[in-house]
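User: Some background: our group keeps a shared notebook of sequences we're curious about, and every so often someone picks one and asks for a predicted structure to add to the entry. Today it's my turn. The entry only has the sequence so far, pasted here. Could you supply the structure so I can complete it?
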Amino acid sequence: MDIFLLFVILAIGIILLSKGADILVQGSSNLALSYGVPLLIISLIIVSLGTSLPELFVSALSSAQGEKDIALGNVVGSNVANILLVLGVAALIRPVRMKDPLANREILILGLVTSVMLFFIVYDVFPVWVGALFIIGYAFYIISLLRIARNERIKAKLESEAIEEIEEIGVKKERPLISWIKVIAGFAGVLIGSEALIYSAVGIALFFSVPSGIIALSLVAIGTSLPELATCVVASLRGSDAVSIGTIIGSNNFNILIVLGVAVMIAPISTGAGMLTGGLFALLSFFGLAVLQKYGVINRISGIVMLAAYALYIAMAYGLKVWG
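Assistant: Of course. Here's the predicted structure to add to the notebook entry:
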């Protein structure tokens, strides 16, 4: 394809990605305001699901085509990127506060599901029944969040806190239908923009003879995390910490329980020794997030450390040929 056209697609992708993320954050904030529930819960349930659709498509298709390493590697790599890369970048823009008590519960759940995933990586196989268990577990997880949302909505004090939190970032209340339209439009912009960006970036890299291994490791590996990255960058610029934290924790839980669960239900997944490195980094990333939660903030220094850790992860993955 003509290099000029590739740069045009790249520009369009960046515009769609940034604008889509902005509309998505606005829409999700308006939903929280309309229904009187904390923004963190909206991000955990709705925003994280939409931003994780690329991972679901990639892993399900890879599993159906017998590319089991890609199906599992996509989940592991995306979860590491979400914490170390996405939150690291968000923290560099503006320190991310983690003051919501609900975040403690969500981080513990993330630690549990990450540990279970690592156990089966060490066990060397994900049987079909594990996939079913993951999907059922996610259903119970969503039910528990909906119950919390209902309970907090009927408490006047908590409802006023939720409204105050959202109004702090300049969001005005509007009709729920308008908010849902914004959320859907935001998802569309983020997903289409991500596809355009990664397609054009790979094309440009190939045009300039960048090795395919480097392309797969960097552009393609980060590609499925672009929706989370764009959403969290916009949320950080808007001062909406709840969206950043909720999107990352919710997305990582969705990746393990639904994305990996669906892939395993399609076909059992056997794991190679190299995948253990990614699994360990995923667990270490969780521990880092849990420690930062105790301090209540991810500051810029922490963001730099997280990005350095992600660079180390990429270097080790490339050196050990984790992704085959």
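Suggested note for the entry: The chain has a mean pLDDT of 80. The two ends are 28 Å apart (CA to CA).
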